[in-house]
Structure formats: C-alpha cells, structure tokens
Amino acid sequence: MKITYIYQSGFAIEYQNITIIIDYFRDSGVKRYEGIVHEQLLNRSVKLYVLSSHAHPDHFNSEILTWKENHPDIQYVFSKDILDAGKAKSEDAVYLDKYAVYQDNLLKIKAFGSTDIGVSFLIELDGKRIFHAGDLNNWHWKEESTPEEIREAEDNYLLELYDLAKDVDYIDVAMFPVDARLGKDYMLGAQQFIDRIRTGLFIPMHFGEKYHEAAAFKGYAESKGVRFAEITHKGQCVYS
C-alpha cells in the first residue's frame, strides 16, 4: 500500500486496483494543476474514491467535483455537513453522518466523530484499517483557554476516542493532526490517540509548512512501539 502526503490533511492511498484521495484542497506542486494528483493519480485507470471529512476550506475544495468529467469510475464520499453547507448537491456524493457506513465490494468506510465539524473516517481495505482523523483532535490552546475550556475540550475528545476504541482494537495506519499552532500542548491529542488505540503506522498532518514541529512527535510515537512517518515535503510517499 502506497500512501502519498499531498498537503495539509490531504493524502492519497494507492492499492492494487483503486486510488483513494482524502481531504484534498491543494495539489503538491507549486502551480494549481501541478503535483501528484493532477499529473499522476487522476490518470490512473482504476476505481477512484474521493473522501472529504468536512467543509473547511483546508479539507474540501469543490474542484474535486470536476474530476468526474475525465474520470468516470469515481465515487465521492463526503461528510453530511458539506451537503448542509451547500458546498455540493445531493446527487454529487454519498453523505455520511457519524456512525454511517459506505460499503462496496472493494472497501468499507465508516464515519466516526470529530471535535470540530464533520467526521473522521475509518477505512477497511483488504484486511487493513486506515484512519483519517479529519479535524478530530484535542483542540485547546493552553496559553489562552480557561481551565474549564481545556477540560471541556479534553472530555469531548476522549469521548470520541472511546467511541472509536469500542469499534477497533488496532489501526494499521493513522493520519492525525500534529498542529503546532496549538502551542505548548500541540502533541497532546496525538499522544492520547496512540495511548488508547494501538497503531501500526502514524502519519502526522494538519501542520502546514511546519515539518520540523510535526516530526517532533517521532520520539513519543516510537517509544510506544509505533512506526512514525517523518514528513519532509509535499508529495512524499510512505509504504505500509
């Protein structure tokens, strides 16, 4: 299985006769139509799944709806908030609320919760479990938030982890935010994730251009026996 980091929270998964693109909003190249998506992935003559976890502009770009014009074997799976926000039409995609499932003869996608809008995705593909967190994280700014706000954010986050852990005891690949904008505790959500859910490979996301800060999580992950993918550039490939 080949996993390519596109940008921010965008990833592509290539496996045998399918491609999965998750939370695309910008390609890996410098110009608009340059990069791994436009130059390679959209030209693969295989089934294409396009997933979007929510309507935030760094997770959803309506450009993806034009891809069906040149790639007819395509299936869109979106969080329902994208439909509710008027970002797409009812006929454009399958829309998932929390706990809803899309399944066909190639894969299964189950939506789990988020601590922002939208959902997170658990993908089951040929016996492997792949988790994309969307905007699920322990979102609080310790230097700015009140103790009550911090406690509420953490309680909400840990409840979502509890729900996920009830369904799965092991995740082969997790794509999860390690966002230094949160300040001092920016790695806390990722730490709590791998403390509670056994994870084979952890890939950081949602860090913009702050590669060094995202890579700082490597030590903690490896101390827990988790393989860590150190992302250094857009278009980087990881194999699982």
Features:
240 residues; alpha/beta; Metallo-beta-lactamase, Chain A; seven-stranded mixed sheet; 6 helices; 14 strands; 30% strand
In short:
This protein is α/β, with parallel strands linked by helices and 240 residues long. The protein has helices at 36-39, 80-84, 147-167, 188-196, 211-215, 218-223, and strands at 2-7, 10-15, 18-22, 47-52, 74-79, 94-96, 101-103, 108-112, 120-125, 128-132, 170-177, 198-205, 227-228, 237-239. The strands form two sheets. The chain has a seven-stranded mixed beta sheet. The protein has a seven-stranded mixed beta sheet with strand order 7-8-9-10-11-12-13.
Walk me through what this model shows.
This protein is α/β, with parallel strands linked by helices and 240 residues long. The protein has one domain (2-239): Ribonuclease Z/Hydroxyacylglutathione hydrolase-like (Metallo-beta-lactamase, Chain A, 4-Layer Sandwich), CATH 3.60.15. Helices cover 21% and strands 30% of the residues. It has 6 helices and 14 strands. It has helices spanning 36-39, 80-84, 147-167, 188-196, 211-215, 218-223, and strands at residues 2-7, 10-15, 18-22, 47-52, 74-79, 94-96, 101-103, 108-112, 120-125, 128-132, 170-177, 198-205, 227-228, 237-239. It has a 7-stranded mixed β-sheet. Strands 7-8-9-10-11-12-13 form a 7-stranded mixed β-sheet. It is globular. The termini are close together. The mean pLDDT is 96.
The largest sheet has its strands arranged as 6-5-4-3-2-1-14
Helix segment count?
6
Biggest pleated sheet: 7 strands, mixed
What CATH calls the topology is Metallo-beta-lactamase, Chain A
| CATH homologous superfamily assignment | Ribonuclease Z/Hydroxyacylglutathione hydrolase-like
How does CATH name the architecture? 4-Layer Sandwich
Structural class of the secondary structure composition? alpha/beta
